[in-house]
Amino acid sequence: MCGIVGIVGRAEVAHRLVEGLKRLEYRGYDSAGIAILRENGVNAQIERRRAAGKIANLEAAVAAEPPRGRVGIGHTRWATHGAPTVSNAHPHATDRVAIVHNGIIENYRELKDELIAKGRRFESETDTEVVAQMLTDYLDQGMSAEDAMAHTMPRLVGAFAFAVLFADRSDILVCARRSSPLAIGYGEGEMYLGSDAQALAAMTKRISYLEEGDWAVLARDRAAIHDASGAAVERPIRTTELSGALVGKGNYRHYMEKEIHEQPEVVGYTVMGTIDANARAVKLPKLPFDPAQLSRLTLVACGTAFHAALIAKYWIEQLARLPVEVDIASEFRYRAAAMPKGGAAVFVSQSGETLDTLAALRYCRSQDQRILSVVNVPESTIARESDLVLRTLAGPEIGVASTKAFTTQLVVLASLAIDLARARGTIDRAREMALVDALTHVPSHIAAVLQSRARFKALSHKLAEARDVLYLGRGTSYPIALEGALKLKELSYIHAEGYAAGEMKHGPIALIDEDVPVIVIAPPDELFEKTASNIQEVIARGGRVVMFSDAKGIERFGGTGIDAIATPAVDPFVAPIVYAVPVQLLAYHTADVKGTDVDQPRNLAKSVTVE
Ligand code: M6R
Q: I want to staple 370 with a disulfide (CB 3.0 to 4.6 A). Which of 286, 288, 345, 414 is the partner?
């Protein structure tokens, strides 16, 4: 979702701003732009280049007429207010200021009316432009850049991060954050600004993060940071682990394909990070609560991470006998959930920046809950606001569709379930060793699924013709059915629904006919016979069934009239981690057949920082 880059440099910045924006491409966007201060005596002139669509279009505009200057800001925009056109692309500017913005100004309509009544003229449909106009209004009243910021900030309602250039201050840029993240980078005689450390990693490894309500003035040799009250504050400078190299696709055609194939390796790293292989035991850091004292655990997340949390509910309730509540963050944050005294909540997020998940975390914090997070980006806001972070070691995930982030989340959550069960005395040592052994074998099972990818590719040609697809599963395969449907719709734009197999006869069975493929996730576990009966119900109504199971399951089903794809035989405990991969492969190949933008599907963003 929108990305911000800024540089107060010693040398020209246009090219570096564009490079910084490329590093933020993974967040998802639909237009891009830069603004640079062209020095011209006391006053500088604001020069903008903006383009709809990909950054390549912006690069062409910059190459055609390079803007020159040593201070600049850049932006990738994911449209909220107004279509993704050049006039709505950031930066928004007057002759005195240029601004880039991430987030939403909720009261922009009333502010816009007020400014129009004062004679200000607007060029775009965006909420952002009100901030440019309001700053200009204050400057025109004779205020300094700092005072104009200090007057503007309290008038804005919503979540945002800003970077602002002032034409009469060619040596600074000003930035501010409320909810949306912003990182300051420290260079040699230069200062940088970015939505995250990834944007800055090629320029510096020394990063500090603005905190809620902070605003800062960046000059070449210093950052003056203020908190929401205006008091000068220091924020710690950390050394980021991120590499300056752009993450490439290697020999793969898409990032998503590469990331699917990285799973044996990154799942292996993550397993090794959560277990002691010699002791055949889980080894997590000390939890920030006593599991034996908990009456309930709350898990909150969005999208694919929510599906990981749903699977964790089955694991934790079955192994640790601990009641688990799971909710979608956008619902949880507004339903004034009653939280048990001394309770704990777990937040699952690849990016660690998803706004709804972060808001849910802050709600739980306000309810005195201990906060545990399962996060892939260690420097993210959710990670920084947690009492304990359990890291997924997936590495950077660039494709918008979550793949390796999901399977590594499942590994961490499975380990957490074992840890809780051990602490609550609900499993014995032999069971812990068996569960840990099962986790240890997951990377090779995933590698085996990847070996048979040709079968999923063959199936994808048929699936690409479908208008609607149903995914069914029971137990921990039910969230995999939800995930399969989400993957297929987000990548191939085919309508798909995931259902608990037992729920089919309560409604979705009405959809069954020969044109609606039904994908059934059916590992041969204790619920297999029930799922097999549901498959028969589909066949009886002329439905086309594709079953994912192992050789034993396919033999147990014994029926004809279905397509079956054999997966490796796995312990039922880890089945959802392994069966996640077939649904990813199927969605990937189907999207590829349909020719959609696999890595950046339409309308989607990698990091969803608006609600
Ligand atoms: O970064 P997060 O894990 O918090 O993101 C949550 C969802 O936005 C994300 O999983 C989304 O559903 C993916 N596009 C699914 O592939």
A: 288
